Each structure stands twice: as C-alpha cells, then as structure tokens.
Amino acid sequence: MIYPIVLYGDPVLKTPAEDIEPGSIDAKQLSEDMFETMYQASGVGLAAPQIGKSLRMFVVDSGPMEEEDEESNGEGFKRVFINPEIISYEGDDWSFEEGCLSIPGVRADVNRPEVVTIKYLDENWNEHTETLEDMPARIVLHEYDHIEGILFTDHVKGLKKRLIKGKLNNITQGKVDANYKVKLSPKLAKR
C-alpha cells in the first residue's frame, strides 16, 4: 500500500513519535508499505511520521543513491528501524546537501557526524546494535531526527534559513510540486 507523504507544516512532523510495543503492530506489513511508498517517491529513507503515523519507526535503503555513486559498490544499505536509540556519535561533522520527501523542492547543506552507533529492533522484533559511517550514518540520522520531531531544515541557520523560508511557507500553503502522492496539513485540508 502506498501512503501519501505528509508535507511540511503538519504537526505530526514536529511531534516526537511514540515507542512501539513489540507485537502491537504488523511491523512486516507496515515496513513493506513504507518501502513501497519510499520507492514510489524516489526516496532513500522514510519515517512513520511522514505517512502520518506517530510511531518510532523508519526504513532506509541507500541503494538508489549508491547506484549514482561511481565509487560505491552499489549494494546499498537496507534496514527497518523500530524504537531506535542512538548509543554514540563519533568522528568529525561533515556537510552534505540533504532533501526530504516531506519538504519537496527544498535542499540545504546539513552537518552531521561521520559515525553513529544505534540500537534498534527490526521488522521481526529482533534487537540489533550497529555502527554506521558516512552515507548510511547520515541517512539514519536524518530519519532518526524525524521520529524526534526534527526536520533537516531545523539544522539550517542564518542566511541559508532565510533563503528557504519562502519555499517552506509555500509548502504550508499547499503550493507544492511533487511527483508523488502527498497529504496537506490538516489546516489546509479543511479549506
């Protein structure tokens, strides 16, 4: 099932998500639906709040990004993260231009640590602790922010923030151009 992507301005994106009691949801089905939604929108990560579900869950697949990278082996990094908890950050922060399916048409450089160690449950409720670096770490940190109610634009400061403010306002007003199914904020849907 393909869900519409919740757009910037919807309160679910700015609210910390709830822990999931193991077995309380069909995690396999929801993760399959989230991957299908993400692929349809040409994304590499998708958090449950982005489909309107305030749950501490996200999916990632760096494969499409790595296919474009000539230095990559193209294998990709595909995982389901349920109730993730960051254990540690390491290395220097590095800048990379990020975008978000919930904020179409907006991109900005964001600094993130090189390495992250994270503990999580997978779609079968098995626990894992994993250390990730470089692009997989960045993708996971971006999606982790989503379940904390943080958007990549919250990391943008100063002049850069002012430069994207107009685009963000347009999205909150429903002026958006996305080639995938989207869901307007509840305020706009009532109009």
- Count the E strands: 7
Low-confidence stretches: 69-74
At the first level of CATH, the class is Alpha Beta
**Distance separating the two termini:** 27 Å
Q: Using the alpha-carbon principal axes, give the shape.
A: globular
Would you tell me the overall average pLDDT? 91
Proportion in β-strands: 25-35%
At the fourth level of CATH, the homologous superfamily is Peptide deformylase
Strand order of the largest sheet: 2-3-4-5-6
CATH topology: Peptide Deformylase
Sheet with the most strands, sense and barrel status? 5 strands, antiparallel
Whole-angstrom Rg: 16 Å
Quaternary organisation:
single chain
Q: Given the structure, what is the number of helices?
A: 5
Order of helices and strands: EHEEHEEEHHEH
The CATH architecture: Alpha-Beta Complex
Q: How many domains, as an integer?
A: 1
The structural class is alpha+beta
Provide a quick synopsis of the model.
With 191 residues, the protein is an alpha+beta fold. It has helices spanning 27-40, 63-68, 134-147, 158-172, 186-189, and strands spanning 5-6, 45-47, 57-61, 78-98, 108-121, 127-133, 182-183.
Give your account of this protein's structure.
With 191 residues, the protein is an alpha+beta fold. The protein has one domain (5-176): Peptide Deformylase (Alpha-Beta Complex), CATH 3.90.45.10. Helices cover 28% and strands 28% of the residues. The chain contains five helices and seven strands, in the order E-H-E-E-H-E-E-E-H-H-E-H. The protein has helices at residues 27-40, 63-68, 134-147, 158-172, 186-189; strands spanning 5-6, 45-47, 57-61, 78-98, 108-121, 127-133, 182-183. The strands form two sheets. Strands 2-3-4-5-6 form a five-stranded antiparallel sheet, sandwiched between helices. Strand 5 (108-121) and strand 6 (127-133) form a beta hairpin.
